[in-house]
Automatic annotation (TrEMBL):
<dbReference type="GO" id="GO:0046872">
    <property type="term" value="F:metal ion binding"/>
</dbReference>
<protein>
    <submittedName>
        <fullName>TRNT1 nucleotidyltransferase</fullName>
    </submittedName>
</protein>
<keyword id="KW-0694">RNA-binding</keyword>
<keyword id="KW-0808">Transferase</keyword>
<keyword id="KW-0547">Nucleotide-binding</keyword>
<keyword id="KW-0479">Metal-binding</keyword>
<feature type="domain" description="Poly A polymerase head">
    <location>
        <begin position="31"/>
        <end position="154"/>
    </location>
</feature>
<dbReference type="InterPro" id="IPR032828">
    <property type="entry name" value="PolyA_RNA-bd"/>
</dbReference>
<dbReference type="GO" id="GO:0016779">
    <property type="term" value="F:nucleotidyltransferase activity"/>
</dbReference>
<dbReference type="InterPro" id="IPR050264">
    <property type="entry name" value="Bact_CCA-adding_enz_type3_sf"/>
</dbReference>
<dbReference type="InterPro" id="IPR043519">
    <property type="entry name" value="NT_sf"/>
</dbReference>
<feature type="domain" description="tRNA nucleotidyltransferase/poly(A) polymerase RNA and SrmB- binding">
    <location>
        <begin position="188"/>
        <end position="239"/>
    </location>
</feature>
<dbReference type="GO" id="GO:0000049">
    <property type="term" value="F:tRNA binding"/>
</dbReference>
<dbReference type="GO" id="GO:0001680">
    <property type="term" value="P:tRNA 3'-terminal CCA addition"/>
</dbReference>
<dbReference type="GO" id="GO:1990180">
    <property type="term" value="P:mitochondrial tRNA 3'-end processing"/>
</dbReference>
<keyword id="KW-0548">Nucleotidyltransferase</keyword>
<keyword id="KW-0819">tRNA processing</keyword>
């Protein structure tokens, strides 16, 4: 057996975790770290959040924690076997080992067990099915560690069975492939076959759940390969993607933005030919208003809002921003520059601060312009002159310009 001693593992032992471990030990209940956190620790990554698994039932945990005066928070997870305890300003999510009794492709009815192997069996991928004892011992029933070392993504047991338990696992397969696999195209043929045969099951999964996974896929590695695969395996149509997505544009843009940390929507929009594609995506996935607006903005401006000729390549973007009356236009322009792969211009645009127009109506009144209508016209003329100067003219220059006008 392998024992993990990594510094990331040692760092988990906060006062809270030590207290939790003591309580379980006293009662002879087994407690282990489960799933994604084990995968992260074995990869040398500090896990974001840690799930624990135990042989104790929810009732036994409640009794034990209550007797020890430990605060329990939200009971929502209880019927799935999860108890959340709060110790030393830290939450601990602890779930009883379980077996899925009935699954409908979306939810499972569970019954509790004390068999670690049975619990591992109902998890999705081998790299997510491992447990780690608090002494560092690895419990690995399906060669997850070996797969992680070899950067292989495989379902636990038969792919088709795992997928039919929850069709969202198709997208989880893609997500972890983009996170762990070394190169595109390294799939087991029978896994791809199982995905293709079950793709239709994604039609019954809620848009919100799909969007969470899809966003992570769009920000991972091999995104071009994975999205092409979604088309080859007939998945695209069930998750709101256009039937005739623009794959050349997607290939180009997904390469452009590799190191520019784009928003998921920026990557995805390159598949779209027009605004209807954004609307259809929204109907299926219920994306946020901000995401929808970004998609519509990119589809509308990606062709004609491009860098200027000559010495001032940023000018078209700056002018657009200055003329815009909408909030957060600058963040949309940043995303457009990423989409276009303009890394240098993006840096310059992010450093550019929007100058404020130096002349006010008050200045014009001092110069004897009195009627509101004339003031409005004069201000607009001066704004145009100021824009032509690249926003460099100051108040004096503009006012002397007004005398000429």
């Amino acid at each position: 057996t392998m024992r993990l001693q990594a510094p990331q593992f040692q760092a988990l032992f906060t006062p809270g975790l030590r207290s939790v471990a003591e309580l379980f030990e006293k009662k002879n209940y087994e407690l282990r770290i489960a799933g994604g956190a084990v995968r992260d620790l074995l990869s040398g990554v500090t896990p974001q959040d840690i799930d624990f698994a135990t042989t104790a039932t929810p009732a036994e945990m409640k009794e034990m924690f209550t007797a020890a005066g430990v605060r329990l928070i939200n009971n929502k997870g209880e019927k799935h076997g999860t108890i959340t305890a709060r110790l030393h300003e830290q939450n601990f999510e602890i779930t009883t080992l379980r077996i899925d009794v009935v699954t409908d492709g979306r939810h499972a009815e569970v019954e509790f067990t004390t068999d670690w192997h049975k619990d591992a069996e109902r998890r999705d991928l081998t790299v997510n099915s491992m447990f780690l004892g608090l002494d560092g011992t690895l419990y690995d029933f399906f060669n997850g560690y070996e797969d992680l070392e070899n950067k292989k993504i495989r379902f636990v047991g038969k792919a088709a069975e795992r997928i039919q338990e929850d069709y969202l696992r198709i997208l989880r397969y893609f997500r972890f492939y983009g996170r762990i696999a070394e190169k595109p195209g390294d799939h087991e043929p029978n896994t791809l076959q199982a995905i293709k045969e079950n793709a239709k099951g994604l039609a019954g999964i809620s848009g919100e759940r799909i969007w969470v996974e899809l966003k992570k896929i769009l920000l991972g590695n091999h995104v071009n390969h994975l999205v092409q695969l979604m088309y080859e395996l007939d998945i695209a149509q069930y998750i709101g993607l256009p039937l005739d997505g623009n794959s050349e544009e997607f290939a180009r843009v997904s390469k452009n933005i590799q190191n520019l940390s784009p928003k998921p929507m920026t990557v995805l929009t390159s598949l779209f030919k027009g605004k209807d594609d954004v609307t259809n995506l929204d109907l299926r996935l219920k994306i946020s208003k901000e995401e929808k607006n970004l998609g519509l903005f990119l589809v509308k401006h990606r062709q004609e809002l491009t860098k200027g000729p000559g010495p001032e390549p940023l000018r078209p973007y700056q002018d657009f921003l200055m003329d815009s009356r909408e909030a957060n236009t600058s963040s949309k322009i940043f995303e457009l520059l990423k989409y276009q792969g303009e890394e240098q211009l993006l840096k310059e645009m992010q450093e550019w601060t929007v100058p404020s127009f130096p002349v006010s109506g008050h200045d014009l009144r001092k110069m004897g312009v009195s009627s509101g209508k004339e003031i409005g016209t004069a201000l607009q003329q001066l704004r145009d002159e100021w824009k032509k100067s690249g926003y460099h003219m100051d108040k004096e220059e503009l006012l002397s310009c007004l005398k000429k006008l």
